[in-house]
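Run log, item B.
One chain of 368 residues. Sequence copied directly from the ordering sheet:
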Amino acid sequence: MHYQTIGRVAMAAVAVTAAAGLLSGCGYGSSAEAAPVKQTDGASGAKLSADTVKIGYFPNLTHGTALVGLQDGLFQKELGSTRIKSQFFNAGPAEIEALNAGSVDIGWIGPNSAINGYVKSHGTSLRVIGGAASGGVKLVVNPAKISSLDDLRGKKLATPQLGGTQDVALLNYLAGKGYKVDAASGSGDVSVLRTENKVVPEAYKSGSIDGAWVPEPTASRLVTLGAKVLLDEKSLWPDGKFVTADIIVSQKFLTAHPDVVEAVLRGSLAANAFIKADPEKAKADANLQIKADTGNALPPAILDPAWASIDFIDDPLARTLQTGADHAVAAGLLDKPELSGIVDLTLLNKVLTAAGRPAVADAGLGVK
């Protein structure tokens, strides 16, 4: 049971991207290297069972829980004198590799990368232990070329990565509308071009693509270039809820240092509570962390609508994790996986119960 990583798929993805003149830069879904590690000195208070916890994340708004938690010291407050080493990534596969190598203990990541890492390791590498974000994904198009959802035939639409979360979502949507697309090459009634998020705005401006199914803030960046939101993915899910980012942990680290994992989860809940209580301040703080990481803050025209479209959550929405995997299987990008055990909500539910909140469900994907 594994993602199809055979040569023809990889070659097809490269060929399509190169043909569009888009193979440059670093973005979500690329094989970009990670950024340098940052380390805190630790706060006062008792040290937990580990001297250091290594945290990975993306400098993306859908990872706002991690951005706010780091920027405002909410993780460090819970960790006491246990130090944080943080490192941001531009690609899910790179973060999974770091987790497997032991250079990341806990990370914020998209669902397909989590599934891929779990399946490739035969269920030995990671657990999903908490939620982070729902929503914040849109189909944004050139209104001069696409006027309605029934006007996609013959058009060129970008997604961040072959087999990635947004790629699977678009392929599933197109199939439901009756369009035929070869998942490996992206060719068919609609052309699906796998294009890094960082490159998508230039591709849009050049006319290489007619639209894109992308997460924030790329969607809002395209709107500033004259694109229009044709579909918010929230409209396709029950109650408008679907996982965009979850929290994962190395199984080895979880077994050795459950007290540290619990502390990070408390910090995550504190970050999400702060986001809910003071969204404007939290938004500004997330942007400060993005600027510290990348050198560039997001302008209000992009930041404001992007932030408003994301729901920051504690529940990992395990049910939609399974649905996303089912969609990948239907698209032919994933052999039917065995996901039992990918989710472990023991510590999350302990923290929620202590806070007087109801426990959340693992949708049958929990550790037996």
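Observations after the first pass:
- The first strand starts at residue 38 and ends at 39.
- The first helix runs from residue 7 to 19.
Flagged for discussion on Thursday.
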